[in-house]
Amino acid sequence: MRLQFFLSEIGVGLRRNLTMTFAVIISVALSLALAGAALLANKQVDSMKGYWYDKVQVTVYLCNKSDAGTTPSCAKGAVTDDQKATILKDIKALPVVEKVYYESSQNAYKNYEKQFKNSPLATSITPDQMPENYRVKLKDPTKFAVVASAFEGRPGVQSVEDQRATLQNLFALLNGMTRAAYVALAFMLTVAMLLIINTVRVSAFSRRRETGIMRLVGASSFYIQMPFIMEAAFAGLVGAGVACVMLLGGRYFMIDAGLKLQDKIPLVSFLGWDSVIKVLPLVLLIGVAMPAVAAFIALRRYLKV
Amino acid sequence: MIRFDNVSKTYPKQNRPALRDVSLEIEKGEFVFLVGSSGSGKSTFLRLILREERTDTGMVHVLGKDLARLSNWKVPHMRRQLGTVFQDFRLLPNKTVAENVAFALEVIGKPRGTIRKTVPEVLDLVGLAGKEDRMPGELSGGEQQRVAIARAFVNRPMLLIADEPTGNLDPQTSVGIMRLLDRINRTGTTVVMATHDQNIVDQMRKRVIELEKGRLVRDQSRGVYGYQH
Question: Taking every annotated instance into account, which residue ranges of this chain make up the domain ABC3 transporter permease C-terminal (chain A) (predicted)?
Answer without folding.
Answer: 183-303
